[in-house]
Amino acid sequence: MTPNLAGRVMETSKKAVGLVSSFCLLALAACSGGGGGSGAALNAGTGSTSGNTTGNTSGNTSGNTTTTPTVSIGAPDHPNVATVDFHMGELAMKRHHPEEAAAQFRRVLESWEKSLGHDHPSLSAPLDGLGDALMAQHKPGEAAEYYARALIILKKAVGPDHPDTLRTQNLLDQARKFR
Description:
The protein is an alpha+beta fold and 179 residues long. The chain folds into 2 domains: 1-74, no CATH class; 76-179, Alpha Horseshoe (Serine Threonine Protein Phosphatase 5, Tetratricopeptide repeat). The chain is 62% helix and 10% strand. The chain has helices spanning 3-31, 79-94, 98-116, 124-136, 140-158, 163-177, and strands spanning 41-43, 49-50, 55-59, 65-72. The chain has a 4-stranded antiparallel β-sheet. Strand 1 and strand 2 form a beta hairpin. Helix 2 (79-94) packs antiparallel against helix 3. The longest helix is centred in the N-terminal third of the chain and has 29 residues, at 3-31. It is globular and about 40 Å long.
């Protein structure tokens, strides 16, 4: 790949990650009803945050005002914020940043355990993600612990023959093999 082409590909990738991140935040706010309450609001036009606002207005020379929509995503410990963290963890894995991904997945796990309990089926996703991040860091022993927990949850929730259960079983087997 030529240096010029490689640079364009990298720049396009950076823009895509930024757009996906903004989309995740906006989708989260839409799903949660735009929320009021505490927490930061994302300015959809610039990606900047501002207090608990419902829109930024700016005057122009004609006297008209323009409203840039903002959305409130709630308090940092709100379970919906953890959904954004989960997707950011997935993005970090795609960008080959497993340490960053592991931190995101740990935050998700902590938040969802508080709000959903320790054996909720939704926990299998961040458990698998954390296992994947640890495998990418060459920590198969730690990864196996998270895969094993996800496997228990999945077997109980969807059964032993479900594709998600079989995938997690395979990941656990691989982690145990490389301990």
